[in-house]
Amino acid sequence: MSEAPGQTLRALRDAKPLVHNITNYVVMNETANATLAVGALPVMAHAEDEVEEMVGIAGALVLNIGTLSEHWIEAMLLAGRAAGARGIPIVLDPVGAGATRYRTETAKRLLDELDVTILRGNAGEVATLVGVEAEVRGVESMGGGGDPAELAREAARALGVIASVTGPVDHVSDGERVLAVANGHELLAAVTGTGCMSSAITGCFAAVRPDEPLAAAAEALAAFGVAAEDAARAASGPGSFHAGLYDALAALDPATLDARANIS
Amino acid sequence: MSEAPGQTLRALRDAKPLVHNITNYVVMNETANATLAVGALPVMAHAEDEVEEMVGIAGALVLNIGTLSEHWIEAMLLAGRAAGARGIPIVLDPVGAGATRYRTETAKRLLDELDVTILRGNAGEVATLVGVEAEVRGVESMGGGGDPAELAREAARALGVIASVTGPVDHVSDGERVLAVANGHELLAAVTGTGCMSSAITGCFAAVRPDEPLAAAAEALAAFGVAAEDAARAASGPGSFHAGLYDALAALDPATLDARANIS
Amino acid sequence: MSEAPGQTLRALRDAKPLVHNITNYVVMNETANATLAVGALPVMAHAEDEVEEMVGIAGALVLNIGTLSEHWIEAMLLAGRAAGARGIPIVLDPVGAGATRYRTETAKRLLDELDVTILRGNAGEVATLVGVEAEVRGVESMGGGGDPAELAREAARALGVIASVTGPVDHVSDGERVLAVANGHELLAAVTGTGCMSSAITGCFAAVRPDEPLAAAAEALAAFGVAAEDAARAASGPGSFHAGLYDALAALDPATLDARANIS
Question: Is residue B221 within 8 Å of residue A230, measured between CB atoms?
Fold first, then answer.
């Protein structure tokens, strides 16, 4: 199934899918640039007047609750329903779920009311959403949720999604199988929005593999992780790593991705 | 007319005009940094309570509809009327016009109600606004509008603006003359917001050459394009190109700009 | 008192305090990354529904009025009262006070209604808030306020805060003592949001030294200034300086900071 992330990457660059993001203010530029670098086309639009029309020309929808307010939630619901009606994948990033009730409840509401395809979060966020004790400080997971492979499986079953739980090793599950992705670099934790970028890239991969969201989610994390490994080699710290991450995403070639993706 | 973009750049750095941007969330930081790097002072302000006062101390106003919502449109109208009353140049960037009705109609409304000096967009966006068939995917032009020189001339006539249509070669027209600007680099398309940056820099140049907006628009694109050529030489991909673009804008000297500007 | 900024930096990295920022759209990513690079955890949240809860788990609150609108002011007041009730430090950055009445009045209102610990601004902004004639162009201080050491002392007395007035040399005062901080580099003025970053880092330092805000404010500026000196050495212009600033903040070690901090 996940034997060929390079093939998905090649398909992505051929199709250049439009990925509609309704995301937080902190990472808009960065997720748009990550999307461009991997080979897709980003569009950011949040007005209730246009989100349904915009999602109508998109190949995937990425919802990210990092800086919420009321109008944005309404826009996410409108866009999400339109995405569901068209059958395009929806990726939800529940940034900071567990840190405040507002975030937890909004993430739950989006999961309830929309046909979310892939939930991409850290262990604390995902554990919160399946009702497991977890510690979330702001937007950082302080752990919790126990074994991350089991957490991914449980979240997938309980929430009816592909659960993509990122951490030192990522775990992606459809409720039955669990794929572990062991790519990445610790410098990812030193740059804000890298989790959000991984969600955006998950949307790009899902757009070209809508019928295999488990594979798409794992392959996206492998691609992002391999790019991070490349960027880290040339980096002197978080600033140069951040700039290098876009270079590495753009330079990532399918054969290299196949050779280095560590999905098991 | 456009024989001396270096002179305008020199004037810009001497005057350090304040350029008021009401722009989208994705590119606020990047357009502010591009404005600073070329030698002007950016200010971002969108509250209806202050935009008229802010534009009252500015040398140009840049309106960008990349992430619209109702209050922002009202603020653009208030600021635009105040700019018109003061006679300072208004640059409009109709990001994504053609992708959704909301964007198309908002761009048309701003053109109707305000005395827009320069319209800076890609071929798809500008074609949409003059009623020519075009394909716009999100915020990307997929072409359309036919011959870009004719599109610029027609847009300038139909809309009563200086039309600045960017692409592999840029075309700027006042409805009579058409200037072609053949500077730039393909890496510009790999970084989000470079179109928005070119609009912001157009505002900087227009601020110091308010009576010659055709020349200002062409010179701004030449300056941005030459800086992009310099940044591309040292770049390993979109991330290092992006960081290098600010270095190159700041390092651009008037004599180099005169020597390398390819305006015809 | 300020003999050991390295000790505060060490404490900061051990404690990794969560710093809640309600800040402007232009610098959200950059202030979050500066906060991470120095060793703290940033969180950006502005919804009235969650700011009190979020500040309840934070070690400091940073308020920045760079892109105001009504809901944001309400959120700042709610968060600020909750911070005051918990006794955690509040840093206020009055971006553009003096440029428009809206900004000046909002900054004054926040100072009146909240127990602001540290006011971090440029000379023009701070002078405006103590009623001294100053010229502020957009968000840039054109000088004013006379002797900056006296301005800091006067602002501290008049406003009941630690006044942290940044410029070529920074001056920090509690109304009695005035500390001058002579670190930094002129490239800081070439990148947007570096003032906002210094406010964010002031929040990080204040979070681990809440009982000594005068020292914390001066040490934060020294740390940021030393990092800027390091970043400038390797920079080719504002873009590479900007990326290098995060590298330098992350690489800054306590002994180096103690050796090079120029606080008198």
Answer: no
Model pLDDT, residue C170? 98
In a 3-state reduction of DSSP, which class is residue B115?
A: coil
Nearest alpha-carbon partner for B82 in B51, B41, B119, B47: B51
Interatomic CA distance for residues A236 and A233, integer angstroms: 9
Question: Helix or strand or coil: residue B203?
Answer: helix
Measured between alpha carbons, how far is A23 from A28 in angstroms, rounded to an integer? Answer: 6
- Find the CATH number of the domain harbouring B67: 3.40.1190.20
CA distance C25 to B23: 11
Over residues B1-21, the pLDDT tens digits come to 446 899 999 999 999 999 999
* Dist CA C112 CA C128 (whole Å): 15
Percent of chain A clearing pLDDT 70 (strictly above) = 98
Residue A116: CB partners within 8 Å, gap ≥ 6? Answer: A80, A90, A91, A92, A110, A159, A161
pLDDT (tens digit per residue) in C46-87: 999 999 999 999 999 999 999 999 999 999 999 999 999 999
Rounded to whole angstroms, how far apart are CA atoms B103 and B94? 7
Contact between B47 and C66 using a beta-carbon 8 Å cutoff: no
Mutate to test the interface with A, among C23, C49, C61 (most CBs of A within 10 A): C49
Would the CB atoms of A29 and B24 count as touching at under 8 Å? no
C47 chain-A contacts, CB cut-off 8 A: 67-70, 102
Name the residue among C50, C190, B6 with its Cα closest to residue A98. Answer: C50
* Vertex B216 angle, CA B210 and B221, to 5°: 150
Could you list the residue range(s) of the whole structural domain that residue C152 is in? Answer: 5-260
A interface mutation test: which of B23, B24, B26, B101 has the most A CBs within 10 A? B26
* Residue numbers of B between 67 and 96 with CB closer than 8 Å to C: 71
- Letter string b/e over residues A43-74, b meaning 16 or more CB atoms within 10 A of that residue's CB: bbbbbbbbbbbbbeebbbbbbbbbbbbeebbe
Contact flag B190-A37 (C-beta cutoff 8 Å): yes
**H, E, C per residue of B180-202:** EECCCCHHHHHCCCHHHHHHHHH
**Smallest CA–CA distance from A244 into chain C, residue:** C243
Query: Which of C236, C245, C247 would best serve as a mutation to test chain B binding (most B beta carbons within 10 A)?
Result: C236
- Please give the Cα distance from A189 to C199 (Å, whole number): 22
How many distinct structural domains can be found in chain A? 1
- Taking the Cβ of residue A140 and every Cβ of chain C, the question of whether any pair is shorter than 8 Å is answered with yes
Contacts of A60 (CB under 8 A, 6+ apart): A17, A19, A20, A83, A88, A89, A90, A91, A203, A204, A206, A207, A210
C146 close to C219: Cβ distance less than 8 angstroms: no
ipTM: 0.95
User: B202 to each of A48, B11, B153, B183, how far by Cα in Å?
Assistant: 31, 14, 18, 15
φ and ψ at residue C136, rounded to 5 degrees: -120, 120
Please report which confidence band the pLDDT of residue C3 belongs to, taking 50, 70 and 90 as the band edges.
Answer: low
Helix or strand holding residue B165 (H, E) = strand B162-166
CA angle A258, A167, A250 (to 5 degrees): 40
**Four-point Cα dihedral B102, B103, B104, B109, nearest 10:** 90
d(CA A64, CA B132): 36
C206-C210-C211-C212 Cα dihedral, nearest 10 degrees: 0
CB B78 within 8 A of CB B40: no
